[in-house]
Write a structure and sequence with these properties.
The protein is of the alpha/beta class. The chain has 25 helices and 32 strands. It has a 17-stranded mixed sheet. Strands 4-5-6-3-7 form a five-stranded parallel sheet, with helices on both faces. Helix 8 (about 230-240) packs parallel to helix 10 and helix 15 (about 360-375) packs antiparallel against helix 17 (about 390-410). The longest helix has about 30 residues, at about 60-90.
C-alpha cells in the first residue's frame, strides 16, 4: 500500500526536523509539527493492522482509503517541505550562531492549512479502522458451496503433460522420499511463483516408483485461505472416501484422530501444495504426526522459504528450485508450441532466443508458447518476437501477472515499498546490495527498531524479499548465514519487474522515462520518483522542460540508471524538493554548483572530475555522499583533500569521495559517519579516526609510490575504531616482491567486532595470518592480488571460528593445509587464479556447501575431490555445489 510509504517518509522528515541541532523552530512551529507527528504515528500503527487482517476480506474500500491517505500525506509533506526549503535557502548565506543554530523555521503562516490536513487524516484513519473492524467478505470467483479446497492428483496422473527439465531436483526429491531415517518426514520445495514447484511435485506424486512405494497418497491444494478441518477432510477423502460425509460435522480433533488411525501402519505420501502459512504444518503435525510419522512422508510446495524451513528438519533442509537453463527452456518452449511435431529447422535458432528471453521461468515460457502456438510460424514473425516488435512478451507478462501478484500482496506493509523500489532499476539490472540498502535508507522506507541502524534493517528487509522469492540472488552471492551479509548482489526477474512497474504506476510510486514518444507525458504529472533509463533524454529540451514543469514541487528522487554517459547533459536540477539524486552514470566536467541549492538532499551520487566545493556544507540534511571520478587512473601527484567544511555536515553516514582524503578535523567530528570509502592512508590518521568513533565500514586504497616509506603503518591506528565491522585495504599498484611492506603485525588483535575483511596487494607473509585467524567474529575473508605471499599456509586448530566465506585469488601459494578444528563453519570456498597451488590438505568442517575453482592448477581439483571423498562421502546430508572452471576448456565441470 502506497499510504504506508508516504507516512513513513513524512514521519522520518518530521523526526529529523525536530531533532536537528542546526534548526530552531520558532513558536508555534513546534506545536504544529508535534500535532502532525502524533497523527502520523497513530496512522502508521493503523496501517500496519492490515497485515493482521483476514485474507478473505475485500480490500476495495481499504484500497480506496489508502489512496486518499497517500494523497493527503503527500500534500502535507509538500506544504511542510516547501516552507522548509524556502526559509533555509533564504538564510543559507547567514552566519551560524554560537550555539550551532544555522536556520530558524517559522510555520505560523501555514498553521491553518497544516492543521486542516491533520484533521482530515484523522477522519480518514477512523474510516480505515472502521473498514478493518468490519470487513466485507470477498466473493469467491468459483464458489461451489461446501466444496473442499482439494485437488486430487491420483486420478489425473497420466493425463497431464510430462515435466521438462529439472531432472536433478526430481531425483533429489525421490531420494529423500525413499529414505527411512526419520529425518526426511517433510520435504519442502521452495521457489518463486511459476518456477514449477507444483509441476515437479505432481511428477513425483504420479511417478510409478513412488506410487508403488506408498500404500496411500493424498494431494491437498492449501492456498492462502485455509482451515485445518478442510485439509483433514481433503486428505480423508482420498484415504477413506466413504467416511467423509459421516464425519464431516465432527470436531477437528475427532477428524484428526480418525484420520491418524486410518494412516497408522500404512506407508503414505501427503502433498500440501501452495502453502503460505507455517502454521499449516504445525497444526497438521499436532493432529497426525505428534507421536510418530507412521511411515509417512510429507511433500510441501511454497513460495516462502521461511515456511519451508519451519517445516523441514534443520539437517535435511529445503529443496530450492532453480530456473531452467537454456537447453531446458528451449525444450519446454518447443514442446508447448509443436507438441509431437518437428520444429522447422529455420525456427530453431530464433526459438532458442525466444526461450532465453523468458529467463528460465517455466510459467513465462508456457505463456509465450501459448501465444506463439496460435500465430504464424515463420522466421519473420518469430524475429519480431525476439526483438519485441510485437506484443507477445508484453501479453505474456500480463497473462502471468495474476499468478505473480499474490506474492506482492502477501508482503508486510514495511516490505512493500522496498520491493516496489526494486523496479526503479532497469530490466535485468544487477542490483548491488551495498547500493540498494543505502538508497532505501535515504528514502526512509525501512523504519528500524531502536537498537538497529537503518543499514542493518535495510539488509534484513532485503533478505526477507529474497526468502519470499521475489528477489533472486546473483551468482557469487550466498545466504550461508541468515544474519550475515553474504548477499553481494541480486536481481529481479523480468516477469516480477513488470509487476513492480505496474503496481508502482497504480500507486504513483515511481515513473520510468526510457524513450521519447507521444506517450511521454502520460503519468508523469506530480510523480514523487523519476527513474531515467536513458540519460540522453536530459539533452532533449522538450523532455527536460516537461520533467521540471511536471514535477518541480513533487519529485523527491531523481535516479539516473541509463548507460554511462561520457559527455555532460543538463540534468534537471530545478527539482528543488529532491532528497535522492543519483547521477553516477552521467559525467560532469566540474562539480555542478546548482546542487547546493537542493537543501533537502539526503543522498547525492555524482561522477565528476572537479573538486568538491566548500559550499557542499549547505546540504545540511545530507547523509550519503558519493563522488566518482571519470578517470580512475592518474599519475602520482599532490594529495587531494575534501574541503574542511565536510566536518560541518553532522548528518553524514556514508562518505565516498574517490581520490580525496579527509583533512585534520581540528576538534570537529562526524558522530553519525558509519561508512568511509575510497580514501588513502592520509585519511587514516589518529585525529581523523578519533573524530569518526562510530565507523563500521572502512575502504582504503593505497598507491605505493616508489619512494614511500611504510605505506601501511596506518594499520596500527585502526584499533581506535572500536565498532569497525568491515575493512577493505587494497594496494592498487603493488610491488609484490618488496620487503618494505612487511610490518611486524598486519592487523591489531583488538578488532573484536570485525566481520568482513578484504585485503589486496599487501604482500604479507602467511605467518601473519595467525592474527587474522584469531579474530573472533570474522565471517568473510577475501585475499586478492598477493595479499599474502609465500609457498605455505597452515591454518591451525581453532583458527577462524566463525569464517563462512573465503576467497583466495592470485597468489603464489603452493601448499595449503587446514588442520583439525580450523575453519569449522566454512560454507563457501573460492579459489581463483592460483596457478602454483599444488596441494591442499585437511578438511573444512561439516558446513561446507559451495566450492568454486577458477583457472587454477588442475591439481587443486584432484586435491579437493580427494578431501570430499575421504571426509564427506559418508555424510548422508552432505551435498555441496562444486564447480571447476578453466578458461582453456571454456566449460564448467561439476562434481
Amino acid at each position: 500500500m502506497a499510504a504506508y510509504a508516504s507516512v513513513i517518509s513524512l514521519k522520518h522528515t518530521i523526526k529529523r526536523l525536530l531533532n536537528s541541532s542546526e534548526i530552531l523552530l520558532l513558536p508555534p512551529s513546534p506545536e504544529i509539527i508535534e500535532s502532525a507527528s502524533n497523527e502520523l504515528q497513530s496512522l502508521r500503527k493503523t496501517l500496519i493492522r492490515l497485515d493482521r487482517g483476514s485474507k478473505s476480506s475485500s480490500r476495495k474500500k481499504i484500497n480506496a482509503l489508502d489512496e486518499q491517505i497517500r494523497e493527503a500525506v503527500c500534500k502535507l509533506e509538500d506544504l511542510l517541505e516547501s516552507h522548509l526549503s524556502n526559509q533555509i535557502l533564504s538564510q543559507s548565506e547567514e552566519e551560524i550562531t554560537e550555539d550551532g543554530i544555522q536556520f530558524s523555521i517559522d510555520l505560523q503562516e501555514s498553521e491553518h492549512e497544516i492543521l486542516c490536513l491533520v484533521e482530515a487524516l484523522k477522519e480518514m484513519e477512523l474510516d480505515y479502522i472502521k473498514e478493518l473492524d468490519n470487513p466485507e467478505v470477498e466473493e469467491e470467483e468459483d464458489d461451489d458451496g461446501d466444496e473442499l479446497v482439494v485437488s486430487t492428483r491420483i486420478d489425473s496422473c497420466g493425463n497431464e503433460s510430462k515435466m521438462i527439465g529439472l531432472s536433478d531436483k526430481f531425483l533429489e526429491i525421490k531420494d529423500r522420499l525413499k529414505r527411512v531415517d526419520g529425518l526426511h518426514l517433510v520435504t519442502p520445495i521452495t521457489g518463486m511463483a511459476g518456477i514449477g514447484k507444483t509441476t515437479l511435485a505432481n511428477e513425483i506424486f504420479c511417478d510409478l516408483d513412488i506410487s508403488e512405494q506408498f500404500d496411500l497418497r493424498a494431494w491437498v491444494a492449501v492456498s492462502r485461505k485455509w482451515q485445518l478441518k478442510e485439509i483433514l477432510l481433503a486428505i480423508l477423502a482420498q484415504v477413506d472416501a466413504d467416511m467423509v460425509e459421516m464425519i464431516m460435522d465432527e470436531e477437528v480433533k475427532n477428524i484428526g484422530d480418525y484420520l491418524k488411525e486410518s494412516l497408522k501402519g500404512k506407508r503414505h505420501l501427503i502433498v500440501l501444495d501452495d502453502v503460505w502459512d507455517k502454521q499449516v504444518w504445525d497444526e497438521l503435525k499436532n493432529s497426525l504426526f505428534k507421536d510418530d510419522n507412521n511411515g509417512g512422508k510429507i511433500l510441501i510446495t511454497t513460495r516462502l522459504d521461511q515456511v519451508g524451513r519451519g517445516a523441514s528438519n534443520p539437517v535435511s533442509g529445503i529443496v530450492k528450485m532453480r530456473l531452467l537453463n537454456k537447453e531446458e527452456s528451449w525444450d519446454l518452449l518447443r514442446e508447448k508450441v509443436f507438441g509431437e511435431e518437428l520444429c522447422p529447422y529455420q525456427l530453431e535458432k530464433i526459438g532458442m532466443k525466444i526461450a532465453e528471453k523468458c529467463e528460465g521461468l517455466p510459467l513465462m515460457i508456457v505463456a509465450v508458447a501459448n501465444l506463439l502456438r496460435g500465430e504464424e510460424r515463420n522466421p519473420e514473425y518469430w524475429n519480431d518476437v525476439v526483438e519485441k516488435k510485437n506484443s507477445v512478451f508484453m501479453d505474456a507478462y500480463g497473462a502471468i501477472s495474476k499468478v505473480l501478484y499474490p506474492s506482492f500482496e502477501y508482503l508486510a506493509q514495511v516490505l512493500r515499498p522496498c520491493f516496489l523500489y526494486m523496479g526503479v532499476f532497469p530490466q535485468g539490472y544487477e542490483i548491488l546490495k551495498s547500493k540498494v540498502v543505502i538508497m532505501w535508507a535515504a528514502e526512509g522506507f525501512p523504519e528500524p527498531l531502536g537498537w538497529q541502524t537503518a543499514n542493518d534493517y535495510s539488509e534484513q528487509c532485503l533478505r526477507a524479499l529474497i526468502y519470499n522469492n521475489l528477489v533472486l540472488l546473483r551468482n557469487g552471492s550466498t545466504t550461508w548465514n541468515f544474519t550475515s551479509s553474504g548477499v553481494k548482489s541480486c536481481l529481479v526477474h523480468t516477469s516480477v519487474w513488470h509487476v513492480c512497474r505496474r503496481e508502482a504506476k497504480r500507486n504513483k510510486f515511481f515513473h520510468i522515462l526510457d524513450k521519447c514518444g507521444d506517450d511521454l507525458e502520460d503519468g508523469i504529472e506530480g510523480q514523487r520518483r523519476l527513474s531515467i533509463h536513458n540519460n540522453i533524454l536530459f539533452g532533449i529540451k522538450d523532455v527536460h522542460n516537461l520533467i521540471e514543469d511536471s514535477c518541480a514541487s513533487t519529485a523527491r528522487s531523481l535516479l539516473c540508471f541509463g548507460p554511462y554517459c561520457r559527455y555532460q547533459v543538463p540534468v534537471c536540477f530545478g527539482l528543488r524538493m529532491l532528497r535522492v539524486l543519483d547521477a553516477l552514470t552521467i559525467r560532469f566536467y566540474e562539480f555542478p554548483i546548482e546542487v547546493v541549492k537542493l537543501v533537502q538532499l539526503r543522498y547525492l551520487g555524482l561522477t565528476c572530475d572537479g573538486n568538491l566545493p566548500s559550499s557542499i556544507s549547505k546540504l545540511w540534511n545530507l547523509q550519503f555522499l558519493i563522488v566518482f571520478r571519470h578517470l580512475s587512473i592518474k599519475p602520482f601527484e599532490a594529495p587531494s583533500y575534501m574541503p574542511m567544511e565536510i566536518w560541518d555536515m553532522k548528518e553524514l553516514k556514508h562518505l565516498q569521495i574517490m581520490g580525496s582524503d579527509l583533512r585534520d578535523p581540528c576538534g570537529a567530528s562526524l558522530p553519525n559517519l558509519s561508512t568511509l570509502l575510497d580514501v588513502s592512508a592520509l585519511s587514516c590518521r589518529e585525529a581523523v579516526f578519533e573524530a569518526i568513533p562510530n565507523l563500521r565500514k572502512l575502504g582504503v586504497q593505497i598507491e605505493s609510490e616508489p619512494d614511500a616509506a611504510e605505506p601501511l603503518s596506518f594499520l596500527d591506528r585502526i584499533s581506535n575504531l572500536k565498532k569497525l565491522q568491515i575493512l577493505k585495504c587494497v594496494v592498487v599498484n603493488p610491488d609484490i616482491m618488496s620487503a618494505l611492506l612487511l610490518p611486524p603485525d598486519p592487523l591489531p588483535t583488538s578488532l573484536s567486532v570485525l566481520k568482513k575483511l578484504h585485503l589486496g596487494g599487501l604482500g604479507y607473509s602467511w605467518e601473519h595470518m595467525s592474527v587474522i585467524g584469531s579474530l573472533p567474529n570474522l565471517e568473510v575473508l577475501k585475499l586478492r592480488c598477493y595479499a599474502f605471499q609465500g609457498p605455505t599456509w597452515i591454518i591451525e586448530e581453532k583458527r577462524f571460528p566463525k569464517l563462512g566465506y573465503l576467497v583466495i585469488e592470485d597468489t603464489d601459494l603452493v601448499q595449503w593445509e587446514v588442520r583439525e578444528g580450523g575453519c569449522p563453519k566454512l560454507y563457501s570456498l573460492s579459489i581463483k587464479h592460483c596457478h602454483l597451488l599444488e596441494e591442499i590438505h585437511g578438511r573444512f568442517g561439516h558446513n561446507i556447501g559451495k566450492i568454486e575453482v577458477v583457472d587454477s592448477n588442475p591439481s587443486v581439483e584432484t586435491c579437493l575431490k580427494q578431501i570430499i571423498n575421504a571426509y564427506y562421502s559418508q555424510l548422508e546430508f552432505y551435498d555441496p555445489s562444486i564447480c571447476f572452471h578453466y578458461s582453456w576448456v571454456d566449460k564448467k565441470l561439476k562434481s
